[in-house]
Structure formats: structure tokens, C-alpha cells
Design brief:
By secondary structure, the protein is α/β, with parallel strands linked by helices. The chain has 14 helices and 21 strands. 32% of the residues lie in helices and 22% in strands. The strands form 6 sheets. An 8-stranded mixed β-sheet has the order 12-11-8-13-16-17-19-20, sandwiched between helices. It has a 5-stranded parallel β-sheet with strand order 2-1-3-4-5, sandwiched between helices. A two-stranded antiparallel ribbon has the order 6-7.
């Protein structure tokens, strides 16, 4: 799934060591279907060559405002018209000052001033330069002028110092660009999501768990973030990286997930319970590793006693002033019957159901939406695409979400 298909992006590079990240960024943008026109300042060419950026973008790179390849000598007009967005990465302190002042003394600053499309900047500079009062005033003014500021990140810098000012990583900027083009259906809404499995200990080294990968929950968290929501993710153990821009609370057991949800559910607008929470836990957890007797001639299984775990979704749905709740049902048979019954039992307005054996660990899924009007199947698609469709469905049904 190419998430930037048919988008045309002008990628501007100002001077800074972070230009090396821009090479990876342009490759990622092109992989996602974007057409990328690279424009470099003269300072940027001291850090990376135009040949490198041309090879990665597959298109000519522009530096000179008087480039003879532009028949009308108006590169600043021709490059900015028809673009869906201009992204300056890296954006130096000097270049951001130019944008604030409306200066137009090179091709990149001129086309930013003459643009007819959104402008995004990814700051990259030393931590002292970033925290300096003039830079902070410029950042504030850019935001007031409608320019979207991405980052910066924090960490070790090329100068040897550590702090704020690093340009965001290429995959983070890619996530920001994909999110930028998504409709903001949940703007300013607060969304709490659970994802992944829970693990219930048997002894200090053994657990009972399930096959949930967490992919659907993580995809929904990302889709809600793209839709403009303030998202909090509570996740059981997965092999997935934490989604960019989303606070992620890691838990292990169902009880821990229950406690984390109740600690964060206040004032949430939406609660999406995607996690495959264990229905039972081991009541007689051994304090030491359970050993088998090597002399025994027959195998004796340990005597495990089980107790019910708390029902997180039902608990949240029953709260006073509860958020708008969405549940999930992974079944192996009679999906429609079980999903309708579960939605009514939990007392929730919407439930998503699928057949687990068809989608477990996969990157594609097939789901149906269950609500008071009945069952609404969605065509099989990539989990991220399905997640965006589900967020749109939630936004459409959410009371007061005009």
C-alpha cells in the first residue's frame, strides 16, 4: 500500500549535517508513491550532492533560481505550482529566519514565498541555537503564519552535545507527511486504545498468552493520530515498535492493563478495546520455577488453578460519563451471532469482529462493523487501510462530532 500515491512534494534542503537524513527521506517518500522534486540551497550542497538526491528522487535537482532548464526562468513558480506540499528538511535556524522575514534571496526561499500549497519545516540545529530566544520567536511566528513545524527531536548532536534540535528521523518525517494528508476526522478528540496480548504468569519463567500480534491495535492508534486525535496506547507485549507521536504504556498482565486503563480513561472521548485480554489468569502462581521430576516414569502436569480476569471493556462502559466505547471480537466460528451478542452484553454502541484464523499475524484483515443497525462488512484490505476506515466509521457515529 503506497500511502502517498499521486502526491507531489517539493523537498527543500537548507544547510546542515542533517542533510544525510534527507537522502533516506526522499527514498522513503518515493517508495510510498510520492513524486519528489528536490530543491537545495547552496549551503546544502556542502553536506550532500545534488547527484545523490537526483539518483534517489529520479528527478532533476534544482539549486539556481536562474536554472536554464526552466524555459521561462521562473523555477520558483513552476516548482511550487501543482505541489501538494513543500517540506523543508533540514530547516536551519537561518532558513527559518528567512521564512519569518519573507526574504527571497535564493530559489528555495523564493518558492516558499511564492507557494500556493502548505509548507512544513523540520528544524535541525545545535541545542543552543534551538533554545535561543530569536529561534523560539521565529518558530512561534511560523506556526502563526500557518507553517507546520515538525519536531525537532532530542538526542546526541553532530557537535558532540546532547539536547533538543535534532531533525526528526526519516521514518518519523514520513509518518508526519502521511498523517498530514489524512482528513482530521477526530481533531482534538482524546482516544484511549488497548492493543496486543496479555501474558499471565505460571511461575517466574513461564506464562500463558495468546497469538495476538498487536498489529490492528497499533494501526488504529496510528490512524487515530493521523485523524488529529490525542491518542494514548496501552499495549501488552508485542514485537512492534512504539508508534511515532503516541504515548505508549507497556503492560504485561490483564490486571495491569485494567489498572492502566482506569488510570487514563478519565475525560477520554473514545475508548477502543482492541487488546486480546486473557479471560483467565493462573490463581496459584508458583514462586519458583516448576520443576519436572527427571526420575518420574510418567509425566505429571502441574495442577493449575484459574481465576477470571476483570472485564476491562464492560467496566469502562459502565462508568459514569463513560467514553464512547468500541469493542473487538475475534472468533473462529459464528462471527455474526457472537459479535452481536457481545456488543449487547457489554453495553457498547459499536463492535468490530473478525475470524481470527484468517487474519492472525497477517498484514491484511477482513472485518465487519456491528452496531444497532446491524452488520456492515468491510472488504479485505491492509490493516492500516482498514484502521483508517474504522476511524472514519467511529468519527461518523461519535455523538457531537460534527
Amino acid at each position: 500500500m503506497q500511502e502517498l500515491l499521486d502526491k507531489r512534494i517539493v523537498l527543500g534542503l537548507s544547510g546542515g549535517i542533517a542533510c544525510y537524513k534527507s537522502a533516506e527521506l526522499v527514498r522513503r517518500l518515493v517508495e510510498q508513491g510520492a513524486t519528489v522534486d528536490v530543491v537545495m540551497t547552496d549551503a546544502a550542497t556542502h553536506f550532500i550532492t545534488a547527484v545523490t538526491m537526483q539518483a534517489l528522487s529520479g528527478r532533476p535537482v534544482f539549486i539556481d533560481a536562474w536554472d536554464p532548464r526552466i524555459p521561462n526562468n521562473m523555477a520558483h513558480i513552476d516548482l511550487s505550482r501543482g505541489a501538494d506540499a513543500i517540506l523543508i528538511a533540514p530547516a536551519s535556524a537561518d532558513f527559518m529566519a528567512k521564512l519569518v522575514q519573507g526574504r527571497a534571496d535564493d530559489l528555495l526561499s523564493t518558492l516558499c514565498l511564492a507557494r500556493a500549497c502548505p509548507l512544513l519545516v523540520a528544524p535541525a540545529m545545535n541545542r543552543e541555537m534551538w533554545s535561543a530566544a530569536p529561534t523560539q520567536r521565529n518558530v512561534s511566528q511560523l506556526a502563526q503564519d500557518g507553517v507546520k513545524v515538525l519536531g525537532p527531536g532530542s538526542g546526541q548532536q553532530a557537535c558532540g552535545e546532547t539536547g533538543d534540535g535534532r531533525m526528526l528521523e526519516p521514518l518519523q518525517l514520513l509518518a508526519e507527511m502521511v498523517a498530514f494528508f489524512q482528513p482530521k476526522l477526530l481533531k482534538n478528540k482524546r482516544v484511549l486504545i488497548t492493543a496486543g496480548p496479555t501474558v499471565e504468569p505460571i511461575d517466574p519463567v513461564r506464562v500463558i498468552t495468546n497469538r495476538s500480534s498487536g498489529k490492528t491495535g497499533y494501526a488504529l492508534a496510528r490512524a487515530a493520530f493521523e485523524a488529529g486525535a490525542q491518542v494514548t496506547l496501552i499495549s501488552g507485549p508485542t514485537a512492534l515498535p512504539e508508534p511515532y507521536g503516541i504515548p505508549c504504556i507497556q503492560v504485561q498482565t490483564a490486571q495491569q492493563m485494567h489498572d492502566a486503563v482506569l488510570a487514563h480513561v478519565k475525560e477520554q472521548d473514545v475508548f477502543i478495546s482492541v487488546a486480546a485480554v486473557a479471560d483467565w489468569r493462573v490463581a496459584n502462581v508458583a514462586s519458583d520455577k516448576i520443576k519436572k521430576d527427571p526420575k518420574a516414569k510418567t509425566t505429571h502436569s502441574p495442577n493449575l488453578e484459574f481465576a477470571l480476569n476483570p472485564d476491562i471493556l464492560a467496566t469502562v462502559a459502565a462508568l459514569p460519563n463513560a467514553p464512547w466505547c468500541v469493542g473487538f471480537a475475534a472468533e473462529t466460528e459464528r462471527l455474526s451471532e457472537y459479535a452481536h451478542d457481545k456488543r449487547k452484553r457489554k453495553g457498547i454502541p459499536m463492535l468490530i469482529g473478525n475470524l481470527a484464523q484468517h487474519v492472525m499475524d497477517a498484514d491484511h484483515t477482513t472485518v465487519s462493523i456491528f452496531d444497532e443497525q446491524g452488520e456492515h462488512p468491510l472488504p479485505t484490505s491492509a490493516k492500516q487501510d482498514i484502521a483508517r476506515q474504522l476511524i472514519a466509521a467511529i468519527a461518523k457515529r461519535l455523538p457531537g462530532n460534527a
